Task: inverse folding
């Protein structure tokens, strides 16, 4: 058993538990000594804690995302997967990400960058980076490979870097200054992505990318429509609205 254990409720709710030899309170599970209860158990075992039967699962990306600590609004798997593919991010790349926030996107990036990659994050609000850095620390103990990580407690437009980056991803309320500054960190062929919840923000991103000399490759939104099995048989879209997360924009330095 590693330093963190994933406990899954029958409802699918996930708890990421640090294995420590002391009695601690875990939200939704109560007070227990995780080392005493969990250290002799294995993946696939079931354990009763309080009134709940919990299954021990391996600490994979979806479990770490479901069980992550949250503060700032996170980028979901729907958008993270698309951003990673469109930017062409993979093992060994250097990626600048701002703001770190809760580290939702960072978890996805850390999973694909591998041991030789470099994740550079910036976040001026310490109360947000405390959460984001905790989620990344957990991931570093759970993933088989983890990139070098450099964090700046500051606005991304003020960071100074040696060398160029393969990609930049910006999720923040005001993108313009960050786009103008971060485009200078990109290598030729590198790409910059913006995550912009409103159309007004998207338009500002588009114009700022053009001003920075980047070529816009794609802008738009992804719709996520979940389906399920009906009680009478057959499948159909599940009830509920088709939600909006953000507009995405991808631009390249040529
Ligand atoms: C919505 S959160 C980011 C969430 C993150 N992408 C995730 O998936 O968890 C936006 C963050 O950007 C930070 N921020 C705002 N302006 C910034 C800037 N110029 N440079 C770096 N971070 C900035 C905010 O403090 C906030 O924490």
Result:
């Amino acid at each position: 058993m590693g330093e963190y254990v994933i406990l899954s409720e029958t409802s699918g709710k996930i708890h990421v538990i640090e294995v420590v030899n002391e009695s601690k309170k875990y939200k939704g599970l109560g007070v227990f000594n995780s080392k005493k209860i969990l250290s002799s158990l294995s993946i696939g075992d079931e354990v009763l804690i309080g009134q709940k039967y919990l299954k021990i699962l391996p600490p994979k990306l979806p479990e770490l995302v479901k069980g992550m600590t949250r503060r700032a609004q996170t980028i979901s798997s729907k958008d993270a997967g698309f951003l990673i593919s469109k930017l062409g991010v993979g093992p060994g790349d250097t990626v600048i990400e701002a703001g770190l926030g809760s580290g939702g996107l960072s978890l996805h990036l850390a999973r694909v960058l591998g041991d030789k990659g470099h994740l550079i994050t910036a976040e001026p609000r310490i109360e947000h980076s405390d959460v984001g850095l905790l989620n990344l620390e957990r991931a570093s103990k759970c993933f088989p490979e983890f990139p070098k990580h450099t964090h700046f407690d500051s606005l991304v437009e003020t960071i100074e870097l040696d060398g160029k980056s393969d990609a930049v991803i910006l999720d923040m309320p005001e993108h313009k200054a960050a786009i103008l500054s971060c485009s200078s960190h990109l290598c030729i062929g590198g790409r910059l992505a913006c995550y912009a919840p409103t159309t007004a923000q998207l338009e500002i991103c588009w114009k700022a990318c053009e001003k920075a000399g980047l070529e816009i490759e794609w802008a738009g939104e992804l719709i996520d429509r979940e389906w399920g099995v009906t009680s009478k048989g057959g499948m159909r879209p599940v009830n509920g609205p088709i939600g909006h997360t953000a507009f995405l924009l991808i631009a390249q330095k040529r």
Q: What stands out?
A: The helical segments are 34-38, 61-66, 77-87, 104-113, 126-142, 176-182, 199-211.
